[in-house]
Amino acid sequence: MEIGNTTAIVHSYAKVNLTLDVLGVRPDGYHAIESVMQSVSLHDTLALTLRDEPGIRIVCDMPGIPTDEKNLAHKAASILFRRLGINPGLEIRIEKRIPVEAGLGGGSSNAAAVLRAFGSKSSKFGVQSSKLLGSGTLNIEPGTLNSVAAEVGSDVPFFLVGGSALVTGRGEQVEALPDAPCWWVLIVKPPFGVSTPWAYKRLDEMGERPSLGAGELITASERMTRCVRASDWACLPDLLSNDLELPAIEQHPEIGVLKDGLLRAGAQGALMCGSGSAVFGLFPNEDAARYAANAFAGDGLQVFVCPTVTRQEATGIE
Ligand code: C5P
């Protein structure tokens, strides 16, 4: 059995939240949310290789990234294998480009990339791994992938769908939306991160829901979803909204300063990514985004210029 020759190369794309409404605390302690998420071309690259030696081994080129069960790619593979009752050897090499603690979903995206590689019935890896690991055992239903993804983390199910999507529940319910035409996205990551649990907790303490302003009958995510479904792309920058900005900017006013900087540099709209700390601006073309990026050189900032990607681009497997 030539197990070592079975390798998949999977691109694992980042996301930005065009909206993030936090609706309240659920009985399980998580928060009920509504969010329109969008894949962007900034990506990590994963190489998955089946090995004769049992166990899951993670190798990553970015120092400080956990290589044990705390790594969400590791967690995804081990939960999937447990559900399927198999115990193959697997090496996952991660070329990390998506900054961590940025709100870009890098770890969650890596986890979904592993699940997509095993779950894809059309990729070479999906077909070969099914044969090598015992025919029939890897007949993974989409429902299984989704429930494994939700067990790994709230953001993971979105990355199985990719492109533009409306995400509800605690993040595990994902409804695909039509692909928007390409926007250019300038992402700026300050040298500090924001803890997701802290941001949710602090928002509860603050007792405010900025997206549900006085007199508003529908959430920012519903407004954005209507706009996307109607292909009314021009109004998209005006509808950007993220409830978690309130606690994050209170703790780190620099995030607000970066948002203002993006708008001054010509962004049509600007917002914090997820629970932070990165912010992004929307630009109509690459030249405008690259020109604006010059304003953020230095100061320990990480800067990325990337277009949005379609569902097909975000979920393809070699
Ligand atoms: O699901 P995940 O492990 O990614 O979530 C990390 C933390 O973020 C949770 O433990 C919780 O504190 C917070 N969270 C939340 N509501 C959500 C998603 C995440 O409160 N919908």
Write the layout of secondary structure elements.
Blueprint: E1 7-25, E2 31-51, E3 55-60, H1 72-84, E4 89-95, H2 106-119, H3 124-132, H4 142-152, H5 156-161, E5 164-168, E6 173-177, E7 184-189, H6 196-206, H7 220-229, E8 241-242, H8 245-251, H9 253-264, E9 269-272, E10 279-283, H10 286-293, E11 302-307, H11 311-315
Parallel strand pairs: 1-8, 3-4
Antiparallel strand pairs: 1-2, 2-4, 2-5, 5-6, 7-10, 7-11, 9-10
Helix pairs in contact: 1-2, 1-4, 2-4, 8-9
The structure holds cytidine-5'-monophosphate.
Describe this structure in words.
The protein contains 11 helices and 11 strands. It has 318 residues and is α+β, with helices and mostly antiparallel strands. Helix 1 (72-84) packs across helix 4 (142-152) and helix 8 (245-251) crosses helix 9 (253-264). The chain is globular, with a radius of gyration of 20 Å. The relative contact order is 0.19. The protein binds cytidine-5'-monophosphate.
